[in-house]
Design goal:
heterodimer, A: Sufe protein. Chain: A, 2 strands, globular, B: 407 residues, alpha/beta, Aspartate Aminotransferase, domain 1, Aspartate Aminotransferase, domain 2, 2 domains, 7-stranded mixed beta sheet, 4-stranded antiparallel beta sheet, 17 strands, 40% helix
Chain lengths: 143, 407
């Protein structure tokens, strides 16, 4: 499996093709959101909502053979697209990898600029929550 | 009179820029309007030539600043057609105006069991201060319901009015839907049972002729920044006898007549309600905004904005997936809408990518959004400097976005 750095490089390459055009970038992110895998209905609970996001974001996890699997959904397509990027980078990895991950791709693809401050705060909240889950698994699994 | 829109646009330097590589189309005028050069120059000129504290300064600059400041009060009096200048109080904005009335009129005149009536269309600023007051006093807040077009139900209002009603506080034009309320009728009905009426004119004052004497409202509140003036400034109009009966709002300089450690006597209106050094520069610049509106003529401004609204609604209605929200018969130039299958945030962000500034979300009217079972809408609001060509670009972008989910 490709490591976190490689996946981030792939994403940076994909976004480079868009040449920083804001409209194309947003449409591309929405497209990614539409491809996000189905979220389990039984996990669509208020307790799974991430605090600090303006739109609704549900996040749930499971552990498989020492690895953390993330599933998430949102009521807005752009947010779904962002989630799909984070899942691509962070899901199905061991907790330590997730906790230690330096997500430099976000800055490299100019996400802060594209999202504006409110949505950027939401993205930060998502990452924080994903890392918190990983940290919890790390202590639980004692790895 | 047909307005020369290109000439008007030339007075707004901010409009001449590109956003995300596209010419800016500013359609968030219900949130705040842009400022003409005359306002910008007045701000700069005040700080460059006249800056000093007003009312008690014994020097030339202070005198000059005081006179220019008070000239704005006179311009606002004429703008609202109040009987006297003393009935015009400068505030931070509409929100502060309402809070001032809730804190002072409310403190003195609202008692346990009294009732205050608002409508479903209200901005949070015209809900929360009354909730706070009702909680403190044991009073009751009642809400006029609306129909699916976003119009208040006058019959229901009649039922809510009782001898317990002490105040009706209602929006003139809805910021979220554009609905113009029949405030003349509301005011006259409320007065028949002896209730006072506050009109929230934040959204109406830029578009509709306001005559507080003809309306006979007890209070009228508005914000300068929504009618081409500076932010952080608003106006509270109140009838003299009501303002005189109200206790002061904040204590401090300016609002006093005499202070000893035993007792303080208060200044006359309007100064009784203007504690502390006021927002001098913005008040002075506001006069230029009023002149700008007066020179163009509100009826001309309204005619232009209405033609843009009608044109936009006609064109957008042809787009598959376009859903208008708020279709009242009488509206100011606010167009709230949804695109089927898409979240308003996403639509707003995609419009921004094409250089079009709109508002998305609940517009500080969550109870109204709940009434329509919505989280929010996309809101385009037109001003005098917007053009038909800009509406065309809005239509083009909305059409492109709508196709994503409505094939």
């Amino acid at each position: 499996m490709t490591d976190i750095k490689q996946v981030q490089e792939e994403i940076i390459d994909e976004f480079t093709i868009l040449e920083g055009d804001r409209e194309s970038t947003i449409f591309y992110i929405m497209e990614l959101g539409n491809k996000l895998s189905e979220y389990p209905e039984e996990a669509r609970l208020d307790e799974n909502l991430i605090k600090g996001c303006q739109s609704k974001v549900w996040l749930t996890t499971e552990e498989k053979e020492g690895k953390v699997i993330f599933k998430a959904d949102s009521n807005t397509d752009i947010t779904k697209g962002l989630i799909s990027l984070l899942i691509r980078v962070l899901s199905d990895r061991n907790p330590k990898e997730i906790v230690d991950a330096d997500l430099y791709f976000i800055e490299k693809i100019g996400m802060g600029n594209i999202l504006g401050s409110q949505r950027s705060n939401g993205l930060v909240a998502m990452i924080k929550q994903m890392k918190l889950y990983a940290l919890a698994y790390q202590s639980k699994l004692n790895v | 009179m047909t307005l020369d829109i290109q000439n008007i646009r030339g007075q707004f330097p901010v409009l001449d820029q590109e956003v995300n590589g596209k010419p800016l189309i500013y359609l968030d005028n219900a949130a705040t309007t842009q400022k003409p050069k005359a306002v910008l120059e007045a701000l700069s000129s005040y700080y460059t030539h006249d800056n000093s504290n007003i009312h008690r300064g014994a020097h030339t600059l202070a005198d000059r600043a005081t006179r220019t400041y008070e000239k704005t009060r006179s311009a606002v009096r004429s703008f609202l057609n109040s009987k006297e200048e003393e009935e015009i109080i400068f505030t931070k904005g509409t929100t502060e105006g309402i809070n001032l009335v809730a804190s002072t009129f409310g403190r003195k005149f609202i008692k346990e069991g009294d009732e205050i009536i608002i409508s479903t269309l209200e901005h949070h600023s015209n809900i929360v201060p009354w909730q706070m007051l009702c909680e403190e006093k044991g009073a009751v807040l009642k809400v006029i319901p609306i129909n699916d077009k976003g119009e208040i139900l006058i019959d229901e209002f009649d039922k809510l009015l009782t001898e317990k009603t002490k105040l009706v506080s209602i929006v003139h034009a809805s910021n979220a839907l554009g609905t113009i309320n029949p405030i003349e009728e509301v005011i006259s009905k409320a007065h028949k049972i002896g209730a006072r009426v506050l009109i929230d004119g934040a959204q109406s004052s830029a578009h509709l002729e306001i005559d507080v004497q003809a309306l006979d409202c007890d209070f009228f509140v508005m914000s300068a920044h929504k009618i081409y003036g500076p932010t952080g400034l608003g106006v509270l109009y109140g009838k003299r006898e009501v303002l005189e009966a109200m206790p002061p709002y904040q204590g401090g300089g300016e609002m006093i007549k005499e202070v000893t450690f035993d007792k303080t006597t208060y200044n006359e209106i309007p100064f009784k309600f203007e504690a502390g050094t006021p927002n001098i520069a913005d008040v002075i610049a506001f006069q230029k905004a009023i002149e700008f509106v007066n020179d163009l003529g509100k009826s001309n401004i309204r005619a232009h904005e209405e033609s843009l609204l009608t044109y936009a609604v006609d064109k957008l209605s042809n787009i598959k997936g376009f859903i208008p929200v708020g279709t009242a018969d009488k509206k100011v130039s606010v167009l709230s809408f949804l695109i089927n299958g898409m979240h308003p945030f996403d639509v707003g962000m995609m419009l921004d990518a094409s250089g079009i500034a709109v508002r998305t979300g609940h517009h500080c009217t969550q109870p109204l959004m709940n009434r329509f079972d919505l989280e929010g809408t996309v809101r385009a609001s037109f001003s005098v400097y917007n053009t038909k060509e800009e509406v065309d670009r809005l239509v083009e972008s909305v059409s492109k976005i709508a196709k994503l989910k409505n094939k």
